[in-house]
Design goal:
By secondary structure, the chain is of the alpha+beta class. The chain is built from 5 helices and 9 strands. The strands form 2 sheets. It has a 6-stranded antiparallel β-sheet with strand order 1-2-3-9-4-7, with no helix packed on it. A 3-stranded antiparallel β-sheet has the order 6-5-8, with no helix packed on it. β5 and β6 form a beta hairpin. α2 crosses α4. The longest helix has 11 residues. It is globular.
Length: about 210
């Protein structure tokens, strides 16, 4: 994305920043400590009282552990039929893995299928996740350890797990080999970004 013409981008960066911060469960003060940007400056940006510089956006993106482009994303057109060839999938690297969209990012409905390729040690992060709707996961190769409300489930090739995703959960690849898995999130509330809660995307360097 060309940031030299930021004024032409018709996106409310302040509102996006607030939404992203709240999705991470961070207060303004917590984001200020993590980014080195003053709490007052962040508050002013969120309220639309001032426009952030690119360097400020990079600092906040790093603190939120997201790509800077998340501040400028527009809502794609939603379709009732989505056909994607295998080589045309959206692929996004994250820490020790790759996320592949399976059409949910374009579908006109509350279902989000995606595939993950996970190196040893890849995980959803140290803290449990919970959100609205339901979650289905099927391990295609390797091992995938899921914790749901403290109960541990070890999935191997062919194993699956289905649960109400308001229950606190997290996952990781505990084995020595690469894991491939299919995830389907469904029934979540409109506008809820369930993907970002499961995966910590990196803004620059990716440790794969």
């Amino acid at each position: 994305m060309d940031f030299t013409n930021r004024e032409a981008i018709s996106v409310n960066v302040g509102a996006e920043l607030r939404a992203l911060r709240e999705e991470k469960g961070l207060s303004i003060r917590a984001l200020a400590r993590a980014s080195g940007i003053s709490a007052n400056a962040i508050s002013m940006i969120e309220r639309g009282r001032t426009s952030p510089s690119v360097s400020t956006l990079y600092k906040m993106a790093d603190a939120l552990n997201i790509p800077i482009t998340d501040f400028f994303k527009s809502t794609p057109e939603r379709l009732e039929v989505v056909f994607i060839k295998a080589m045309e999938r959206t692929r996004v690297p994250f820490q020790r893995g790759i996320w592949e969209g399976l059409g949910g990012e374009e579908f006109k409905g509350r279902v989000e299928p995606f595939a993950l390729t996970l190196e040893n040690g890849a995980s959803s992060g140290p803290f449990p996740i919970n959100h609205s709707g339901h979650e289905f996961v099927m391990c295609l190769r390797g091992q995938l350890e899921y914790q749901v409300e403290g109960e541990v489930y070890l999935l191997e090739a062919g194993d699956s797990l289905l649960f109400s995703s308001h229950l606190r959960h997290k996952w990781r690849n505990p084995g020595p080999h690469v894991t491939n898995a299919i995830f389907i999130l469904s029934g979540f509330e409109e506008g809820e970004n369930t993907i970002r809660r499961h995966i910590q995307f990196k803004s620059d360097e990716t440790d794969l």
